[in-house]
## 1
Amino acid sequence: MPFVFFETFGCQMNVADSDMLAQALFSLGYSIIEESEHADLIVVNTCSVREHAEVRALARIHELCVRKKKHALAQEIWVIGCMAQRMGNSIIEKNPGVNQVIGAKDIVSFVQDLVHGPQGKTALPAPDVKPGRISALLPIMRGCNNFCSYCIVPSVRGGETSIPCSRIVEDILRRIDKGTREVTLLGQNVNSYHDGDTDFSDLLAKIHELPGLLRIRFTTSHPRDCTDKLIQTMARLPKICKHVHLPVQSGSTRILEAMNRGYNRETYLQRVNAIRHAMPDVDITTDAMVGFPTETDRDFQDTLSLFAQARFTTAFMFAYSQREQTRAADMGDDVPVEVKKARLATLIDLQMSVTKERYAAMIGRNIEVLFVEQKRGSEATWMGQDIGCKRTLLACNENIAGTILPVRVIRSSGMTLTLERT
Ligand code: SF4
């Protein structure tokens, strides 16, 4: 039985792609192994969202190739994902130990060929290889049509394609059969999902009716497509988690225009208020960058004041990283590194204080949590999330995988809530 080792960089979409390939290899007799040295096949799934992500992946690929050569290891090394799409076979020219480069745009057809052979282009392999995964990631669409000026995704993942609703429902039913109780629907911009007349809110309502499913999550949303219909659907349907990941990127309307985000500061805050009006306890999280070309102190103050007003539960914050093949690459990169670093530190400080307040405000509250898995190295500690996106821990000696339990919050540390049974 051959062994395969996966190293996945980047977003949940990459995690889902690695999972899809793992399932295909599993159906061909491979076994997943947790360390790379004894693997017959190593798959490195790469990210291109920032330069740093590529530097890390290239260093790792080089390391694996040097070891393969030094010890004459009979290993295959495959490089997949967004950097593979962007750099192509130049990766093999730099690292002859790499055997295959498969871009993010080609991974679906590659997996279909792998399982069914070039002639057998049918649905992807049924996810029946790893029973008992309580929480599963499920891509419902691929690619993006938004062309935000700083973003490389449209050029490495292509335009938007939505997976037919019937196939998504079939896939979820198969997973429920195998023990899945929560699904996270994935897409670069899930809100623009459509299959004929079925839009994203309709899809959510259909999935909500599936027996055996306890929780539904989705990411990533785009503020321009976060409609009142979607907000009402979330508020009305109890299995849909009350968490919206709504990247803002900047609080300055001038910068949002330069980013081609398709909304301004006011419309973004109006969406936040509409979501909170419909779901007062909702968790709203976001992405934001500092140091976008031409960003002034004034623009940055706008980002700070928006964060202070929106009071996100948590946020991913980073400094602008110029990417080739993006429109922003022609705008220069004029904000000095030390200014980017200082702004990022200020924004992180602000957000961390809000996150702490929001988590601390949960102490003493009775909530319901879906428990997913045991904490590594502590079998009697179970991990789960509340109906929002807050991570929780419960000491419990029973097997509570896949169950929703009423619990009370007794402590908050950073970004984790400690619970007790009620
Ligand atoms: S919405 Fe914008 S930032 Fe997000 S993947 Fe699409 S182009 Fe990139």
Note: The chain has four domains: 3-116, 131-241, 275-361, 366-421.
## 2
Amino acid sequence: MIRSASLKIALIAAAVLVAPNARAATSVVIINGNAAGVGFNDTTPVAPVGGNAGTTLGQQRLIAFQEAANRWGATLDSPEPIRIFATFEPLACTATQAVLGSAGARFIYSDFGSIGLYPGPVAAATWHGGPLATKRAGFDPDPTEGDGTSTPKVADIRARFNSELGKPGCLTGIFWYLGLDGRHGNDNDLVAVLLHEFGHGMGFQQFASVTTGQRIEEMNDVYNLHILDNTTGKYWFQMTDAERKASAINNGHVVFDGANVNAAVPGVLVGTPALFITSPPAIAGTYAVGTASFGGRLTIPGISGVVVRALDDANAAGPSTGDACSPILNDVAGKIALVDRGTCGFVVKVKNAQNAGATAVIVADNAAGPVAGMGGGDATITIASVRITLADGNTIKAQLAAGPVTATVGLNGAVTAGIDNHKALLYTPAAVSPGSTISHWDVSAYPNQLMEPFINGDLTHSVRPPEDLTLPLLYDIGWFPDADLDGAADADDACPTSNRAGSIVVGGINTGVPNATFTNGCTINDTVAQIFAGAKNHGGFVSGVAHLLDSLVAQGTITDAEKDRIQSAAAHTK
Ligand SMILES: [Zn+2]
């Protein structure tokens, strides 16, 4: 039985390969849904940017879409194309905040069938997003989209992106970066946002209401089977609606519990950003820091060195000698520069320090308050920087007046960000955020993850470890690698790269007899090749094939006449 429900889930992104045949992968097709002259069809001339050679705004948008589609296509193996119906159109925004875009599966399915070795549903009475359902069925379970009104099917995923971004009143001055190389500077990296939104479409999406806890037709989905509330010890599929509603706002205690994600967590979420003062003992210790959306990533063991206050001119660019708003005048080469927040942007300060040879930068706040991050973008900045509180900055400055200070800017491996009880935290803010709550990783993760609710400036375009947990999650909800697309997961496939030619070919002779796949994942062609490889001589090969053919006839897989044709071909091999 096929059930389908049309979904109206707006996923809010607030402020927010491999050669074919080596891996079969899948094709992800972008369907241009814009009318003439707008969106993907906007004919405004533009210059090539970051590997995107389109010559109109519309072309560049489409090329960026196809780049993200191809990355997913090279990552996931699916027997059918995944179609994304996409438009660029005006979406909600203010001068300081904008909906960048949204995407999700258009239909969800449960209790669908499967063909061949395809495994079918993860569990009975459990919702699967359309692309995942197709993957596990081995065919599109609903080629006419359920309502029978659109034939052939229009798309599996619907994507909308904001055409107004950067214009006055819509995140004013911050545009889409349409390059493919991630060097987005202060603009929004469209490819990264697309990878995020398409990730939702592939199944990074929970379907119960986060405001009421109510499930669609009171059935679970493949995602909520893995949502664990560490406070109650219950999974979402075990909860009442009221319990799910409460769990959705249990900030910091709701995790994704899946074998693939759990195994990947220690290699991806490796530590908490930190400043370690190593000497003198009077102020030695671990200091909390905010991170930057630009520059080098924090690491273990980090960057170590002597801390020096960077001094510049007090001028129109910045009124103090400690704000690093102008070129640095003293020697900070090979050292960690300490600068003050204020007047100019963080990227200006860090760039000036980098130009002077600093190996890392500590930005001390100029106002009391908790640690906070540093926004902005500049692809030419390669050194790491962190932000500390006003109080901690004053502590270091006081010590510098008395003598040298040494420090390390990096990650504290003893404390991991983004986990609770060893498992990856999901986004469950105290105030529920429909479209974002539970269907994202928590914002505390470091390094920043593709599927956090806010797109961070330091994202790579990777969807897999060691950078990212997205792909392990998709595997946990039911995707699996299947290089030869025979429906048997590579891990369980005796012939993971089968010869799946349509007919049986022996010694270069096409017998015209249909090839077939056995339950172990090997085809008849694979088996003939194995017999050839194992035979001592021609006679051994011919008798091995005869043995195989006898069993195929006995099973009813081939007829006696087909057996004769194959046997004849085998006899003619040299
Ligand atoms: Zn999202």
Note: Confidence is low (pLDDT under 50) at residues 1-23.
